[in-house]
Amino acid sequence: MSTGSFYKTLADESLICGRCGNCRRDCPIYQELGWESASPRGKISLAREIFARGQGETVSPEFAERITQCTMCGACTKNCAARIDIQTFWQDLRGKMLEQNIAPKAYTAMIENLKSKKNITNFDNITRLDWAEDMDEVPENLAQESGAEVAYFVGCVSSFFPRAAQIPVAVVQLLQKAEVNFTTMGGEEWCCGFPLLAAGAKAEIQQFAKHNVKKMQDMGIEIIVTSCPSCYHTWNHVYPEIIGETLGFRVLHVSQYLVELLEQGKLVPKELTETVTYHDPCDLGRNSGVYGAPRQILQSIPGIDFVEIPTNSADSVCCGGGGNLQGADGALADAIAKKRILEAAQTGAGILVSACQQCEQMLEKAARAEKLPLQIMDVSELLWLAVED
Amino acid sequence: MSAKVWQEIKEILGERATTDVFERQFYQRDLAPVPEFLVDPMAKTLPDIIVRPCNAAELSDVVKIAVKEKIPITGRAGGSTVYFNSVCSQNGILVDFNGLTGLGKIDRSTNRVRVGAGTTWAELERVLNRQGLAVCSYPSSAPSATVGGWLAMMGYGLGSLKYGALVEQVAAAQVVLPDGSIQELTHSTPIPVSWLAGSEGTLGLITEVELQIRPIPEIQWHGMAVFQDAAAMQHFIEQAAALEEKPFNLHFSDPGCNALRYRLGMGSEPTSAVYTAAFDADGTKDEIAEAAEGFSNCLSAAGGEDWSQEAAEEWEHRFFSLLLKREGPSLLGAELWLPINKLALYLRDISSYENKEKLGLKTYGHVVSSSHAMVMTMFNADERNTIGYLQGLALVKKLHDIGARYGAAPYGIGLWNTSYLQRNYTKTQLAELKQRKKQLDPNDLMNPGKLYQAPLFLSPPFFSIGMDILAASRLFYRGRNLI
Lengths: 389, 483
Ligand SMILES: Cc1cc2nc3c(=O)[nH]c(=O)nc-3n(C[C@H](O)[C@H](O)[C@H](O)COP(=O)(O)OP(=O)(O)OC[C@H]3O[C@@H](n4cnc5c(N)ncnc54)[C@H](O)[C@@H]3O)c2cc1C
Ligand code: SF4
Ligand code: SF4
Hints:
The complex is a heterodimer.
Chain A: H1 10-16, H2 28-33, H3 40-52, H4 61-68, H5 75-79, H6 86-99, H7 105-117, E1 150-153, H8 156-160, H9 166-177, E2 182-184, H10 194-198, H11 205-218, E3 223-226, H12 229-243, E4 250-253, H13 254-263, E5 274-278, H14 292-300, E6 304-308, H15 325-328, H16 330-345, E7 351-354, H17 357-369, E8 375-378, H18 379-387
Chain B: H1 3-13, E1 17-18, H2 21-24, H3 36-39, E2 49-51, H4 56-69, E3 73-76, E4 93-96, E5 103-107, E6 112-116, H5 121-130, E7 133-135, H6 147-152, H7 160-163, H8 166-169, E8 170-176, E9 182-186, E10 205-215, E11 219-227, H9 230-241, E12 249-253, H10 255-263, E13 275-283, H11 285-302, E14 305-306, H12 311-316, E15 330-339, H13 343-357, E16 362-367, E17 372-381, H14 386-405, E18 409-410, H15 421-424, H16 427-440, H17 460-473
Parallel strand pairs in B: 2-4, 3-4
Antiparallel strand pairs in B: 1-2, 5-6, 6-10, 7-10, 8-9, 8-10, 11-13, 11-14, 12-13, 12-16, 15-17, 15-18, 16-17
The structure holds flavin-adenine dinucleotide and iron/sulfur cluster (2 copies).
């Protein structure tokens, strides 16, 4: 069975939709809101009336709100009986909102900010490596070291958000410990552009892709490692399409690279007696097919009792943090996170591990709000805990 | 709808009720993109109020208001049917069942589970599988179809050949009857639970179902047989359906369907030009061994070729049949309840019709009992081309008529198949059904306009003549993508 996308255009795909409703099954938005208008099927049906059946081409404010209520988790695409690439559909639909000037302010402000700052925050891009100041000693090779084999693409959230900064610290310490010849792009790292796609600004991602690829090529990098699943997905699936050829690097999520280092005996974890569960980030698991590596890491740590959340792997439910939902409807994003953290808590685990800085932020906030005795960690943080002297 | 009624309903359901037209518009259609000018003379499809109850008590209160005020009530769950079964025909209250979910107690000694009627089959299976259990059967729309929705329809699908129709696995159901009372129906109550099967939401609203389940099968085995002609495939199917150790699923495709699948990246070139029958068994190792031996015996007897290397892929595709719309963009077709001993004759006539009309017909089907299959014959259409689409609808009637030559009836009635009622039921059976309706719902409030009687435009002579004229007009006008 071909797994390639059949996607043609928004109008074509809306007509292909058979309105069966399979896509409602695991949609966190539909499950939370309950109205058919909030279901993927409902939104596609209305898009069909507007863009394929000539009912005016205009997106109403109510419909615009529904269009922004989506985490781009991909559960609909996985279940679609007509194999529609529904996330691409949502990107195109959001693109229509931009065209019609009815996109939420959160989108337009973010797009403008990205264009000027090259990252999703207000900080100057040159401060991208400020997180490294949390380390006892900042590695000399951290910024654009020539001759490095591996480049760690840190990602905006881990670079600039204080809580997430513990992730790059752990990753870099692990790379040092394993004596990897690595560097980062430093202030030359631009956002991977994934938030632009999610906001419907497809054209704008081009310059981000071209810049990042060119810089990596100039640095002579062989392996790119990302700790953000959305960066990983973008480098692996979106950039080759934009560049029009294979990029010439191996692109790995950090969990995949750490498994290689563990297998080579370059990292040797010590015992940790903890009950641990794992939340699959949508862009790493369902949308990129990486399920095994993070679990392999957890299982490589002696003493860990690993328990699965009932909905896991391809069925894993979103944390609520994707698709620019937080900016458009923060309360809805929080409600989705709450469901997920409660499901994770039922496992009885003391630590919930994920492999995405955004999932960790969402789930940590939800755990705090629910007063759950659940510690949230990135897989690299946990491994570092088991490896450090 | 009066402000008072709305206020009363709002008091019961709060935010889970709405009169907002933006929300209501989404419930006006099902899978069938029938053009407005055809629908409007027959049905008022926009609900006045949508309610999303979470339990039987809330639903009962809503139904009591509806009865008092004589407001029609239409139930909608997955909304995965095609004949307007779950679309209002006279406005009124639409009950969205998707909040009536959840798994109750599992009785492991009897292998029975109590489940909310709005739970989808896929969700039920997922939750049961975690506990080492499985459902006995499910529709191929399992990710969207609900337990209550399938019971209210005919309840045949995957697993039916081995375990029988859904109603045979239902021990009891909690129902809100048209008078608003909440009742537990079993096979021995004065109103038996079997009345609900195929009632299409016209006799009562199901809130919970007590279901026979089974231990999760130890293993699965998938076989596929290929045949050069339909007669050999029928022979295989008849033998396989009669096996002692029956397959969980037995389904077939004709060359038209297999060629399309191949164009879409499935199957292989050799199977794209032949008839195929997929044989999916599950159970213990011993049961599987017996089933696999049965498969081989049936295959040799029918003179087919073993092509089991493609069987697993076909099984994985079981929830993705709408992929076949890719060359549409729309599909039109007839879904028939056909005796399997007439399958080859039916396929022969379909093939002749195809040679004449060049519609690009494709047929597939599931064998769901030792005597019958659910058969779907379809062709591409384009809903944007109104005249062509309308002519396509007329051609659907031709397909039904071909099926009727061999004792086939439509599978599911709703609104659009009411013109074929006499093919589904004898006069006595229909009188019995109408009697039940009168007894339980004397005011005809539950899903009115469906199942028992065709509206004027769909009444047999009117419908038949109209459709024949339309089909004939195709000689003069050929709709886009219909050729
Ligand atoms: C891809 C695909 C494959 C399919 N495969 C099959 C198949 O294998 N077998 C099969 O039988 N059908 C099949 N169908 C048709 C349909 O999906 C099923 O009949 C399904 O069981 C309908 O369930 P639903 O929850 O979607 O009900 P809906 O479509 O919402 O409703 C169907 C009818 O049941 C009534 N109803 C719904 N819920 C209740 C309730 N709780 N109480 C009382 N009445 C209720 C409605 O009023 C309506 O009349 C298929 C459809 C698609 C799109
Ligand atoms: S991507 Fe996720 S949130 Fe968005 S419609 Fe699909 S399932 Fe729902
Ligand atoms: S699953 Fe796919 S075909 Fe079915 S309603 Fe959803 S988008 Fe449409």
